[in-house]
Design brief:
Layout lengths: L3 E6 L15 H15 L3 E6 L4 H5 L2 H7 L8 E4 L2 E5 L5 H7 L13 H16 L2 H13 L4 H30 L12 H9 L14
Parallel strand pairs: 1-2
Antiparallel strand pairs: 1-3, 3-4
């Protein structure tokens, strides 16, 4: 049976470090480390406080640590045992705790290469094909390997899935929720619902579809 590594992240929009205006190199590096561990057969589970608070409450060690404040996050557990608190561990430490030998070097990437890989991931997460092609070529010119590109793109796709899920949840909650409060006649959601029932699709006189 493979080891289970659980990461409990603080509340943030995503866990990869490539969304938003500022790229977090520590999160990018840690995402690459988790990709490497998964390739070694480790089962990786990652929880975001903003999206999965029940996962934090369901882990006694994490719930107890949170009583002293969110400064304990991130927390990393291996088979239920705490291995890191308040910071993301480096790859070598994770490999040692998991009994893995000969981990791939966790050396820091050159600044230009890291910047292009982060920009490449951001382009994929944003869904910009021109930016993707531009930074893919630039990453190659900066010495990026096929594996480094694969990890960056994989992280960006994860961001895209998280953002789509968050938007879908918001849409579902909004459209399937209770009717809006007064004044209801001018509420855009009510107008859309009424239009779907064959009623007027816009308020006011002179509407072309009433």
């Amino acid at each position: 049976m493979s080891a289970v590594l659980e990461v409990f992240d603080p509340a943030m929009c995503c866990s990869t470090g490539v969304c938003g205006p500022d790229v977090d190199p520590a999160l990018v590096r840690f995402a690459q480390d988790l990709e490497w561990l998964a390739a070694q057969g480790v089962e990786v589970r990652r929880h975001n406080l903003a999206h999965e608070p029940a996962a934090f409450a369901g882990r006694p060690a994490v719930a107890a640590a949170l009583k002293d404040g969110i400064g304990c996050l991130p927390m990393v557990l291996v088979d239920g045992e705490e291995v890191a608190r308040g910071a993301y561990p480096v790859r070598e430490e994770l490999a040692r705790r998991l009994g893995l030998s000969g981990p791939a070097p966790g050396e820091a990437l050159p600044g230009a290469l890291l910047a292009e890989l982060c920009a490449l991931a951001a382009a994929v997460a944003a869904g910009s094909e021109p930016a993707f092609r531009l930074h893919l070529a630039a990453a190659g010119s900066s010495g990026a390997s096929a594996e480094q590109v694969r990890v960056a793109v994989g992280a960006a796709r994860s961001v895209g899935r998280e953002l789509r899920d968050a938007v879908d949840a918001a849409v579902t909650e909004t459209l399937d929720g209770p009717p809006p409060a007064e004044p209801a006649a001018s509420h855009p959601l009510l107008i859309l619902r009424e239009a779907g029932d064959g009623a007027c699709c816009a308020p006011g006189e002179g509407s072309s579809c009433c």
